[in-house]
């Protein structure tokens, strides 16, 4: 996370993506990607009766990030981050997140609020980086300007994924509808564009993604910000979440000189 040259970013590449084909993403003009691990919401499992003398088993509800093979890292110039996306319906998710050791291993934390209560909690309380929604279905509640503004003031970003729009017409309608709602209630502030790609065929060239922003209610400057400036701000915000509000990154340039930022 110490790298400063984040460049153009795709901050949601599905963990099922073939990592040996990262060169495709690099050739399309991207400099930074985030491998996304999704934790779906499940019902509470029935409690098992403990036998006398059994040790209490502590189970982490959040899986560890996938390991990036050393040979893959050696063959790419991409900055590879780890992202976690959690589905939830109420504030009880906070306990699972606070108890998780695996959560600390991720660079970016995103959530999918399934209810209005969950959305209110995400905008006003949760220590997260991204709010996103499933493109396969419409947002099941009405979003307000107040909550959107509250999220923006806390440095939270809203995500639009274009890959599902390529695969499915229903997802395409939902994504366009969500994008225009962001424009109507929040003037498209703090938007990031990502692919959500599962395969190389689902990823588009950086300039195609910027042009796609016009369909999603973004002008040329907003589209550029969505894949570069906003993504960079999001990454720096995530570093701040882990290190504290004030931190210094020390790097060495090609002349072995030390610089701070």
From TrEMBL:
Residues 43-65 are annotated as: Disordered. Keywords: tRNA processing. It is found in: Nucleus. Its main location: nucleus. InterPro entries: Pol/histidinol_Pase-like (IPR016195), RNase_P_p30 (IPR002738). Coiled coil: none annotated. Pfam families: RNase_P_p30 (PF01876). GO terms for biological process: tRNA processing. One of its GO terms (molecular function) is RNA binding. GO terms for cellular component: nucleolar ribonuclease P complex. Belongs to the eukaryotic/archaeal RNase P protein component 3 family. This is Ribonuclease P protein subunit p30. It comes from Galleria mellonella.
